[in-house]
Amino acid sequence: MNRAALLICAATLPLAGCVSFGAKPPKSLLVLTSDAMVPVGQVRDSATARTIVVDVPGSAAALATARVPVEVTPTTLAYVKEAQWSEPPARLFARLVSDTLAARTGRVVISPVQAVGEANDQLGGTLRRFGLDATARQAVVAFDATLSRAGQSGTETRRFEARVPVAAIDADSAGPALNQAANQVATQIADWVGR
Question: Which residues does the UniProt record annotate as the domain ABC-type transport auxiliary lipoprotein component (predicted)?
Fold first, then answer.
């Protein structure tokens, strides 16, 4: 190496500790797991069971992030420090609802691509709340559902909500409480949709 190259390398070494290519990742990521699962190996057939498509719900910008929102006051939001979802909460919630519907109703849950050409029920909606309420010290999941049943001209709507107490407004409390609240809402949805 020539002297000029050595000088350039020596000059850039102090900068190496200053460069960052993103935020420091959290120790772990939050996920949702369904309390109701179809047994492994069980075959379901759309020729003999009713089908349903579960769309990923819409959500407000505050929920379209991997961070966990905290309602500090009715008009103020913050985020739980070091709490982050593995993917957008709306996708996690749609998957949990799909698993719960399949297990509790016996329906075959199919994707929108698979639904082309078949008469299927369709569940959609908007995820209104999916975070913590600091004043009530609760995890809150609220979902405005829409249900189009095959062969019927109208669309049904219904609001679902579940609240679960949290010991603290922190990352360790947020995940389990939101998972429990999401499962309660998914169970209510499955009971509403029916077999």
Answer: 39-190
Comparing C-alpha atoms, which of 151, 174, 160 is closest to residue 70?
Answer: 174
Contact between 101 and 52 (Cβ < 8 Å): yes
d(CA 80, CA 131): 9
Q: How many domains does the chain have?
A: 1
Q: What is the CATH number of the domain that holds 175?
A: 3.40.50.10610
CA distance linking residue 37 with residue 80, whole number of Å? 29
> For residue 135, what are the CA distances in angstroms to 69, 143, 146, 169, 193?
13, 21, 30, 10, 33
User: Is 40 part of any domain?
Assistant: yes
Q: Is residue 9 part of a domain?
A: no
| Residues 6+ away with beta carbon under 8 Å from 93 | 32, 57, 127, 130, 141, 143, 182, 186
- Which residues lie below 8 Å from residue 18, measured CB to CB, with a gap of 6+? none
* CB-based burial label for 88 (10 Å; 0-12, 13-18, 19+): middle
Range of the domain at 67: 34-193
CA 159 – CA 54 distance, rounded (Å): 16
Q: Which pLDDT belongs to residue 20?
A: 44
- 49 within domain boundaries: yes
The string of pLDDT tens digits covering residues 121-159 is 999 999 999 999 999 999 999 999 999 998 888 999 999
Any domain includes 10: no
How far apart CA 57 and CA 55 sit, in angstroms, is 6
